Amino acid sequence: MARVVKVFRTLRNHWKKSTFAACVLSYGGYWLYGKHCDNVLRREACLEAREYGRQQIAPQERLRKATVILNPAACSGKANQLFEKNAAPILHLAGVEITIVKTDYEGQAKKLMDVMEQTDMLIVAGGDGTLQEVITGLLRRPDEDTFSNIPIGFIPLGSNNSLSPGLHLLSDNKVKDITSATLSILKGETVPLDVLQIKGEKEQPVFALTGLRWGAFRDVAATISKYWYLGPLKTSAAHWFSTLREWPLVREVSMTYLPPSLRPLDLPPQKPLRPNLLYRIGRRLKNYWYPPVEEPPKVEEPEKWEEQQLSTLELFIQTQNKNPVEMRINDSLMICAEPDDFTVGEFITVGKKKEEDPSLFTKNSTKLEVSACQLHLPEGTGGFYNIDNEEYEAMPVEVRLLPRKLRFFINTERREELLSQTQ
Question: Cα–chain-centroid distance for residue 43?
C-alpha cells in the first residue's frame, strides 16, 4: 500500500511530466492499434484474393493480364508505397499477370496509352488527374473502338478521387478503400460510364468522366491552400478575401445546346443463331434472280441547336456517373448554373458546402438536360476550367456526351446500395 501511495505522490508532484507521458502513451497506443487494424484488413483481403488464385483453369486458358498505370506522385508521393503494400499483393495472390507502368511526369500517361498493347484489363492507380490522362490517351487512339471495350479498374490513391463514390464503398480508412477497390476488380462486375468529349477550336479533344467546372467558386477553391495558416477558417477566409478584390463575381456566357436523345434499352449482346443450310441456299438463289433494290441513302437532318444566354457565378457541366446504375430515359449530361444574385454571406456559405462536394447546387440554380453544348465566352475572358479537377485554360469549347463509352469495375455492395436509392 505504501508503494502505491508513493507512486501517486510522485505523479502529483510531477504532474506536467505525468500528463505529457500519458498523452504520448495514449497517442502511441492509438497509432499501434490503427496499424494493427490495417494489417487485419490486408490479411483478410489477401485471404479472399487467394481463393481466386486457387481456382483451376483449363489447359488452353491463360492467366489474365492486367496493365497498371501507377502515378507515384499521387497522394503527396505516397502512392507507390500504398500500392505496393495494399493492392499489389492482392493482384499477385489472385493469379493476375500484372505489368506495372509508373509515370514520371505530368502528361506521360496520355503518351503511354498510344503504345499500350492489348490487355485483359486496365488498372489506373492514382487520382483524378491520372485517370483523366489515361482515358484521354485511350480515346485518342485510332483503334479506340477496340480498346474502349477493355474493362477499367480504378484504385483511389490520389488526393481527389471524384469517381470513387459511384464505384466503391468509401470509408475513413485509406487501406480499406484501396483493398476494397482492388477486390472489386477481381470480382469482375462492371458498369458502363458516360464520357464527356471536350474539344476546343484548335486543341485535341480532352475526355472527362466527372465534368467541366468554371466560375467564381472554382477560382476561389484553387486559392484555399494559400491560407493554410488559418486552419479551419481558411475556406471562409478565401471566399471573403475574393469578394474584397472583386464583387460581384458574375460570369457571362452564351451557350448553344442540343436536346437529349432517348436511351436505348440496356439489353445484353446476343449473337443471332445462324440459319440452316437450306434457308441460306434459298436466300442466295432469291438474291441472284431477284436482286434487292438499293434504297437511297438517308439524308441526315441538320442538328437543331438552341441558344441561351447565362449570367452565373458558376457553371458545371457534369455526367450522371454519380449513380451509374440508375435507369434513365435519356442519354444526357447535366448543365447546372448558379444564379448571379448571391449576397456575400450566401457566397461564403455555399462555397464552404461546395468545397466538400462541388456537384452540390442551390435550389434556384438553372438546370438543363442536354446531349451536347457549345460554350461561347466573351472576348478577353480569362480564367481556367476544371476538367475532372485538372486545370485547363478557359476558351470556347464544344462538350459532347459519349454515352456508356467505357466499362469500369464496380463494387457489388455499392451497386446494390445505389440501386436501392433509385427505387
Answer: 28
pLDDT recorded at residue 268 = 57
Overall size of the chain counted in residues: 423
pLDDT at position 68 over 70: yes
Of the pLDDT bands very low, low, confident and very high (cuts 50, 70, 90), residue 67 is: very high
Average pLDDT rounded to a whole number, residues 258-278: 75
- What share of the chain in percent tops pLDDT 70? 95
Q: What is the rounded CA–CA span in Å between residue 348 and residue 319?
A: 26
β-partners of residue 122 are 67, 152
Query: Which residues, in sequence order, are bridge partners of residue 376?
Result: 254
Burial of 182 (0-12, 13-18, 19+ CB in 10 A): buried
Q: Tell me the residue type at 343.
A: T
Q: With a cut of 70, say whether residue 269 has pLDDT above it.
A: no
The pLDDT, as a whole number, for residue 7 is 65
Question: Which pTM value belongs to this model?
Answer: 0.85
Query: Three-state DSSP class for 193?
Result: strand
* Residue closest to 399 by CA, chosen among 320, 312, 335, 331: 335
CA distance 191 to 210: 15
Contact 71, 157 (CB under 8 A): yes
Mean pLDDT of 243-257: 89
Which three three-digit cell numbers place residue 280? 441460306
**Would you list the DSSP string of 344-369?**
HHHHHHHHHHHHH-TT---TT-EEEE
Cα–Cα distance measured from residue 217 to residue 251, given in angstroms and rounded to the nearest whole number = 11
DSSP 250-285: -EEEEEEEE--EEPPP-PPP-PPPPPPHHHHHHHHH
| Under 8 Å between Cβ of 219 and 314 | no
Rg (Cα) of the chain, in Å, rounded? 27
What's the angle, vertex CA 203, arms to CA 201 and CA 206, rounded to 5? 110
DSSP string, 127-154: -HHHHHHHHHHHHTSTTHHHHTTS-EEE
Give the separation between CA 411 and CA 324, rounded to whole angstroms: 12
Beta bridge partners of 206: 198
DSSP 101-123: EE--STTHHHHHHHHPPP-SEEE
Q: Which residue has the cell 446494390?
A: 416
